């Protein structure tokens, strides 16, 4: 990887020359929020010929969009089986196809020509904390045959060949999935949008919105903007004017750490070159900068300094890969994502000319790309596939009570995952011991010559005595046992 990850943000490393909106402006589309979803809307709409203005209260990619591991693969946070149960097989398959198109949108943009230093690499491995080979087969069949997704099932031995730990069992390998430098991608996306004609204004918070009428009015501290369409892509940070929308999201802060260089021993223990994530959503990691490990694990529903979680990342690495020892975590970063109650993103039209693209917590980069493309094409080409998300309505996330509940659910989920993993490893060890014991017993029998023997030629084998007739058994049923006879004396 050509880039070195540090705690210095892209904004501090050369993006200080930011443009604020200081004059009144008219545009076809106003996007609020310069994260992955908002910038994708801006890029796609500008490419289709619309005039676009992006308003960002801070700076490009300052939150979760600029602080993520950069893994790109199809799917949603809601498991596929639950998605089918919720909306039916045909609509689920169409949504899955859209999620794959979102991943391909990222792939097309994330080239060295468009984004120097993007460091794209291929392959994602999803590993199981429990021995679930039977469920793996049915899942592979469904992804391959019904959802046209290229996947491979990996047996336990193959997983442990590339990941030297007994914590993981079976795996699902996505050869078409990939990863990029997430920080570079969000700024590269902004550069592409500007090149296409979009105007991006940073340090420009929205004070108020009037979304009535054909031309909507947006007020900022120093200027006003009018637009036919407004796209709300600000996640949980839409601010006071749209607080009710923000409250439909549960804020979750996810943190990641990057270790000091670990040398060749890292590649001996982790030989897989792409991203690795577990099926429970607890751990997510990959190698960066040649011999450093980037690891995402801690999660909380309350804001905190990222450095506070360095110890948690270090302990988690030692738990999964004890052979690495006590690694040094030199950099921590993270951001807040908005997670929905139903586990699907919020994509669609709230009222005529007012759109939302939000709720991308645990969804992946493909989903924000898909949302941006879909909304731009809905506005400019009449594409109505956003209605596939209509069953997933805006649901209040519960406020402070919801945060407490979310934190407890997260703790319970991690504890359940740990317990299930411990039980799976215990059963595996027990099976290994049983096989070893049987092998030793068989070897001892062979050495002693006590194995089953054939009778000499011409000698008929003796038959086991026939069981006593039932009548005899009944006659003896009334007789006292030897023990009873002793007692009667």
TrEMBL record:
Pro residues bias spans: 453-468
GO molecular function: oxidoreductase activity
Basic and acidic residues composition bias: residue spans: 431-443, 473-489
FAD dependent oxidoreductase domain span: 28-377
Sequence segments annotated as region (Disordered): 431-489
Protein keywords: Oxidoreductase
Keyword Oxidoreductase annotated: yes
Keyword Oxidoreductase tagged: yes
Example of a GO cellular component annotation carried by this entry: cytoplasm
The protein's name in its UniProt record: FAD-binding oxidoreductase
